[in-house]
């Protein structure tokens, strides 16, 4: 039997997931970060991207997550993010349109710093959604 | 004795008012149910993010992060303190708006340089009447709080804090302790101060040390805006819940009063009617007596 740990994924709107899991991969500031049971205590910042976790039945699950952070303990992990969506909840067409819009805005070289960061964040979110969708299909 | 017509008119007007208060009662109870659900959904996030920051504070005593900078070198007279004040869009909610405004007013008196970020119509008109300067372009509604709204507000506040346009950011909102007890609370959003957070109990046996990936600063950079956003959203939802609750209670009282009044009025209406009939009979009997006598 594989060792498992208790995973909770919480967003302001709902508790996205709560249950045992055996492995997970987080999108962090410097790339993907894998966590297994018995991990040393750690706190890390989470970027928007694709988060995946494996439940004890061996299934990998994907989710597009927004910014946030994760608190990892040997026996349990809490992931607090602004948004979390399952691939089937994602509207692919809308995400693609959002991506194109954001890219266009970035192409016109916004001078306003705030607009730049905003477009940038929108682009990242849309990319994460499409990526989650793609990975789910590939599986 | 008042005339029958006057009493009838009075009864009618009370009945009209009762209809309105009853409708308002039903509306706010429906809103409350929805807001309660939202509150229950947001609460886990709220408490977890709060605990996580308390946890970090406890484990890393030495923090030199801009979000923790209390800017103590700035004297009291020059400190720019921003207050986000959450009031309702409408009155008729008992003491709900009054309590918020009272606390806000008290805080204004204590600070030399307050910056007001008022949400809700009642508060805005009140402070405008009092001649306070309010931040323009802060026209957010308080009905049906959304996460997107909370995000916009927190981005504005965090940016103002970073640019030193504000040295402190406070949130004044109403907390629903129990459905019967509403309490106005003031919460410091920025800077984060250690004493604002509870000391968590140390786990027995070993002292856990925590790693921060990639660094404490990077983690805090990510967590703190989320925390501010979460707190603002929580405050919005709590306030909305409280407002609906206060209105429900106020309307309930109004309904009860109206029913009492109707009871009394219909009694005096009947009395007046009785008197009128008796008088009429007496007159007729008196009149007919005249004929029989002659």
Features of the shown structure:
heterodimer; A: 139 residues; alpha+beta; ATP Synthase, domain 1; 2 domains; globular; B: 294 residues; alpha/beta; Pyruvate Kinase, Chain: A, domain 1; four-stranded mixed beta sheet; 5 strands
Please describe what this structure looks like.
The complex is a heterodimer of chains A (139) and B (294). Chain A contains two helices and ten strands. Chain A is α+β, with helices and mostly antiparallel strands and 139 residues long. Chain A folds into two domains: 5-85, ATP Synthase, domain 1, CATH 2.60.15; 89-138. A five-stranded mixed β-sheet of chain A has the order 2-1-9-8-5, with no helix packed on it. A five-stranded antiparallel β-sheet of chain A has the order 4-3-6-7-10, with helices on one face. In chain A, a hairpin with a 3-residue loop joins strand 8 and strand 9. In chain A, helix 1 runs antiparallel to helix 2. The mean pLDDT of chain A is 87. Chain B has 294 residues and is of the alpha/beta class. Chain B has one domain (20-251): Pyruvate Kinase, Chain: A, domain 1. Chain B is 59% helix and 12% strand. A four-stranded mixed β-sheet of chain B has the order 2-1-3-4, with helices on both faces. In chain B, helix 1 runs antiparallel to helix 5 and helix 4 (147-162) packs across helix 5. The longest helix of chain B has 78 residues, at 216-293. The interface between A and B is medium-sized, with 27 and 30 residues.
- The averaged pLDDT of chain A comes out at 87
Query: What best-fitting shape of chain A do the alpha-carbon axes yield?
Result: globular
Q: Quick one: biggest sheet of chain B?
A: 4 strands, mixed
Number of helices of chain B: 5
- Total number of β-strand segments of chain B? 5
Q: Distance N terminus to C terminus of chain B? A: 35 Å
| Main sheet overview of chain A | 5 strands, mixed
Helix share bin of chain B: 55-70%
Which fold does the CATH topology of chain B refer to?
Answer: Pyruvate Kinase, Chain: A, domain 1
> Can you identify the CATH class of the largest domain in chain A?
Mainly Beta
Oligomeric state as shown: heterodimer
Query: What is the mean predicted local confidence, pLDDT of chain B?
Result: 85
Query: Using only CA atoms, what is the Rg of chain A?
Result: 16 Å
Query: Which pair of protein chains has the largest interface, and what are the residue counts?
Result: A-B, 27 and 30 residues
In spatial order, strands of the major sheet of chain B run 2-1-3-4
What is the N-to-C succession of helices and strands of chain B?
HEHEHHEEEH
Give the overall silhouette of chain B: elongated
């Amino acid at each position: 039997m594989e060792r498992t740990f208790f995973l909770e994924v919480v967003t302001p709107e709902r508790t996205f997931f709560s249950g045992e899991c055996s492995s997970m991969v987080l999108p962090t500031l410097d790339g993907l970060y894998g966590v297994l049971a018995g991990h040393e205590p750690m706190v890390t910042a989470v970027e928007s991207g694709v988060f995946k976790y494996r439940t004890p039945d061996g299934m990998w699950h994907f989710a597009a997550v927004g910014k946030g952070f994760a608190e990892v303990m040997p026996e349990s992990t809490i992931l607090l993010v602004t948004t979390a969506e399952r691939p089937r909840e994602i509207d692919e067409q809308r995400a693609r349109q959002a991506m194109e819009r954001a890219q266009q805005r970035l192409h016109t070289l916004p001078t306003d710093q705030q607009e730049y960061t905003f477009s940038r964040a929108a682009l990242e979110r849309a990319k994460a959604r499409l990526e989650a969708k793609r990975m789910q299909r590939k599986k | 004795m008042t005339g029958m017509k006057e009493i009838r008119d009075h009864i009618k007007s009370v009945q009209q008012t009762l209809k309105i208060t009853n409708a308002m009662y039903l509306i706010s109870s429906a809103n409350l149910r929805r807001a309660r659900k939202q509150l229950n959904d947001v609460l886990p996030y709220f408490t977890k993010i709060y605990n996580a920051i308390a946890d970090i504070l406890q484990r890393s005593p030495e923090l030199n992060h801009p979000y923790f900078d209390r800017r103590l070198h700035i004297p009291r007279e020059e400190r720019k303190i921003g207050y986000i004040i959450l009031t309702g869009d409408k009155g008729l909610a008992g003491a709900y708006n009054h309590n918020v405004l009272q606390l806000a007013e008290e805080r204004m008196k204590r600070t030399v340089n307050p910056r007001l970020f008022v949400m809700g119509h009642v508060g805005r008109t009140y402070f405008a009447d009092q001649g306070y300067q309010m931040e323009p372009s802060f026209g957010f509604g308080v009905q049906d709080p959304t996460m997107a709204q909370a995000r916009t507000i927190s981005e504005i506040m965090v940016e103002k804090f970073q640019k030193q346009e504000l040295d402190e950011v406070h949130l004044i909102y109403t907390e629903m302790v129990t459905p019967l007890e509403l309490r106005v609370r003031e919460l410091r959003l920025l800077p984060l101060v250690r004493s604002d957070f509870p000391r968590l109990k140390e786990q027995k046996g070993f002292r856990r040390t925590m790693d921060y990936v990639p660094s404490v600063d990077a983690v805090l950079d990510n967590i703190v805006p989320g925390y501010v956003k979460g707190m603002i959203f929580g405050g919005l939802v709590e306030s909305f819940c409280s407002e609906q609750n206060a209105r429900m209670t106020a309307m309930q009282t109004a309904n009860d009063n109206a029913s009492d009044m109707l009871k009394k009025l219909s009694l005096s209406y009947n009395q007046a009617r009785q008197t009128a009939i008796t008088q009429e009979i007496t007159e007729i009997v008196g009149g007919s007596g005249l004929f029989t006598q002659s």
